[in-house]
Specification:
Elements lengths: L1 H23 L15 E4 L2 E4 L4 E7 L2 E6 L5 H10 L6 E3 L4 E4 L5 H38 L5 H35 L1
Antiparallel strand pairs: 1-2, 3-4, 4-6, 5-6
């Protein structure tokens, strides 16, 4: 039973960490290097993340500076950012690339909040699916007479407590990100 609990906790915590990574990539009007995490650059035939090819720094609150370690990668990085869906036009001055984040309009903020809520809901669905799989495992253990019916009931209660704990984490992460987006 303890193995089922620990596997469930591990899977649920991975779900929450994926959600937090997704939230880091949400463009909230401030310069955030996390928006570049999903952009891959073709570097000698190998898709490579920008943060492995360049120094990324926040020069001002809304300006991100990308300084490639190898000057020959400046144009491929520039083209990869242009081709991405982050919605920011990069400026290339020959030695660094600058991304200027525009101020968010009220409509765009509301749209981002909807996206944030959808990401949270998708994560909750994943958490509940993990709980369902764990409950199925302990039901199989009970059918195979490895555990008693009381153990099954206690196990279901414990899995529900674990699920509630992670759902609460998701809600607090979503709430914090919503506040961040609406307060900029």
């Amino acid at each position: 039973m303890k193995e089922v609990y620990s596997n469930t906790r591990e899977k649920m915590s991975k779900t929450v960490s994926v959600l937090n990574k997704d939230y880091a990539a949400v463009r909230a009007g401030r310069a955030n290097p996390g928006v570049l995490d999903k952009i891959l650059v073709d570097y000698y035939g190998v898709p490579t993340p920008i943060n492995q090819m360049a120094a990324i720094s926040v020069s001002e609150a809304r300006i991100l500076v990308i300084q490639p370690w190898d000057k020959s990668t400046l144009n491929p990085i520039y083209k990869a950012i242009q081709a991405s869906d982050i919605g920011i036009n990069p400026q290339n001055d020959g030695s660094v690339i600058r991304l200027t984040f525009p101020q968010l309009t009220e409509d765009r903020r509301k749209e981002l909040v909807k996206d944030i809520k959808k990401m949270a809901e998708d994560s909750k669905v994943a958490i509940r699916s993990i709980r369902r799989d764990a409950i199925d495992k302990i039901k199989k253990m009970q059918k195979a007479s490895e555990i008693t019916e009381d153990d099954l009931k206690n196990g279901e209660d414990e899995l529900q407590k674990i699920t509630d704990e992670f759902i609460k984490d998701i809600d607090s992460a979503a709430s914090a990100k919503e506040k961040e987006v609406m307060s900029i």
